[in-house]
Design a protein that fits this description.
With 394 residues, the chain is α+β, with helices and mostly antiparallel strands. It is 31% helix and 16% strand. Among the domains are: 5-48, Arc Repressor Mutant, subunit A; 139-294, Ribonuclease H-like superfamily/Ribonuclease H (Nucleotidyltransferase, domain 5, 2-Layer Sandwich), CATH 3.30.420.10; 316-383, no CATH class. It is built from 11 helices and 13 strands.
């Protein structure tokens, strides 16, 4: 597949951004972006020659005297109008990156206030701050929640955010929040940016269930890819602080001003906002750099074939039927999570007599106690949450 028509300019910008780095693997990037090496080098050559056909930025420096010139003041007001949620520091950084001599943030704030562009608001309680040490150690994934459109339908924005760089890997307008919607979108992202070490999610659909920690088909698929699934504690959004803040900005800057007419308009707004957020919007936690300045794709590529789980010779192995979540062990049917239907599981003895771990690869998913004496139609396997669990790659 070549450039996707709906976002061709954004894809060219992203490709050139990643391919221009010293340690870039051009062949791998071309494969991930679905273009030929010829096309990739063409855009690199044009970018190297200074062509900006895919970048709407002006590099003309604007000199201002001690007093802020009307031209600079006009630019400050223009940026605030384009991005109503941006404060003085973001606007100052955005203009400075484009070669303009901008006054101090306090002066920018005063200009915004003079023009009536500063609205008082009640500060919210901080969600806490934690950051991974490098890109792709953990991604955060969540639905923003449904937003009503003018035609009466609803849009469910799906976001995937890199924890370290805040880079938005995916921002998609979805009609539903289910497995069949999320998996193809997530696979597209994994093929483009590579595999993270873990993905942090809440306990909602489709990566969670009504019972916190329950396995889902999506979680098992990620586990087979060697991606650890980490669930946040119920009713504790602090661990998802970055994506919660991301969604607040998204709502304020994109979905509320005014409400989109239909799904197509919502999708177009999300595409445009993702580009601005990644490549133009300075972030205070990144020392006023943009997420694109900090993020690099993962060196772990999406496999051409989903790896099969292998077990050591002599282990007790059972195949879960595709029609029901049970395995047969010691003369009885034992319940296992339905998400593992069709998969091979290992039954391993523990240090406690009569207690066995049920494992998917190296990951413990359940437990059998043969001394409890349950019958075949009773649960004889205790659920083990997937918090911080993973299958060793290979």
């Amino acid at each position: 597949m070549g450039w996707q028509e709906v976002s061709i300019m954004d894809q060219r910008r992203e490709f050139v951004m990643f391919a221009s780095r010293d340690d870039a693997n051009i062949s791998e990037l071309c494969r991930r972006f679905g273009i030929s090496r010829t096309t990739g080098y063409k855009w690199l050559h044009r970018a190297g020659a200074g062509e900006e056909s895919f970048a709407d930025r002006s590099r003309r420096p604007l000199h201002s005297p001690a007093r802020t010139s009307p031209e600079i003041e006009e630019r400050i007001v223009m940026v605030r109008t384009m991005h109503p949620a941006w404060g003085a520091r973001k606007i100052r950084s955005w203009l400075s990156r484009r070669g303009m001599e901008v006054p101090a943030a306090s002066t920018v704030h005063a200009i915004l206030r003079r023009h009536g562009l500063i609205q008082p608001h009640a500060p919210g309680a901080p969600l806490g701050r934690f950051e991974q040490d490098a890109p792709n150690l953990q991604w955060q994934m969540d639905f923003k929640g449904r937003t009503r459109l003018n035609d009466g339908s609803y849009v469910h924005p799906l976001s995937v955010l890199d924890d370290h760089s805040r880079f938005c890997l995916l921002l998609e307008a979805c009609a539903r929040e289910n497995h069949d919607t999320v998996r193809p979108l997530l696979e597209r992202v994994l093929r483009r940016y590579g595999l993270p070490a873990s993905i942090y999610v809440d306990n909602g659909t489709p990566w969670g269930s009504a019972t916190p920690g329950q396995w889902t088909r999506l979680g098992v698929w990620l586990l087979k890819l060697g991606i650890r699934v980490v669930h946040g504690r119920p009713y504790h959004p602090q661990g998802r602080g970055k994506i919660e803040r991301f969604h607040r900005s998204l709502k304020a800057e994109t979905l509320n001003t005014p409400r989109p007419a239909d799904m197509n308009e919502a999708a177009a707004r999300l595409r445009r906002w993702r580009h601005i957020y990644n490549q133009q919007r300075p972030h205070e936690a990144l020392d006023m750099r943009t997420p694109a300045d900090v993020y690099t794709p993962s060196p772990r590529s999406f496999p051409d074939k989903l790896p099969e789980v292998e077990y050591d010779e002599g282990e007790i192995v059972r195949r879960v039927p595709r029609t029901k979540g049970y395995i047969h062990f010691k003369g009885k049917l034992r319940r296992v999570p339905d998400a593992f239907r069709g998969e091979l599981l290992a039954i391993r003895p523990t240090a406690t007599d009569g207690v066995f771990d049920v494992c998917f690869g190296s990951c413990k998913i359940a437990e059998i106690n043969v001394k409890e004496g349950q019958t075949s139609n009773q649960k004889s396997v205790n659920h083990v949450p997937e918090h911080l669990s993973a299958m060793s790659p290979g």
